[in-house]
Amino acid sequence: MEKIELGECLMVIELDEDGNGGFVTGGQRVEPVTEMDRLYNAAIDGIESLVLCHAIKGINIRSNSYVQSIKTAIDACEHEYSD
Predict the structure, then answer these.
(1) What does each C-alpha distance from 12 to 25, 41, 53, 61, 79 come to in angstroms?
(2) pLDDT tens digits, 36-68
(3) SS (H, E, C) 13-56
(4) Distance linking the first and last C-alpha atoms of the chain
(5) Which of 3, 20, 70, 76 has the most neighbouring CB atoms within 10 Å?
(6) pTM
């Protein structure tokens, strides 16, 4: 199992030995108290799924520009779904 830490505490990607699957831990989800929290978590789930797919397909998710783009996407979600 290959473990890839994306940025500082953004998320951890763990790829299966065969490279055909994996999962995300950590992440930026919040406790779903409100409808906005649930929408935020859904958006974060989409970002995490995209990152996992990119890692499985061999895209360099460790590059600074990639990590910065993911941070920007997460920041946009935080802005959009903040109360």
Answers:
(1) 5, 16, 13, 11, 23
(2) 999 999 999 999 999 999 999 999 999 999 999
(3) EEECCCCCCEEEECCCCCCCCCHHHHHHHHHHHHHHHHHHHHHH
(4) 39
(5) 70
(6) 0.89
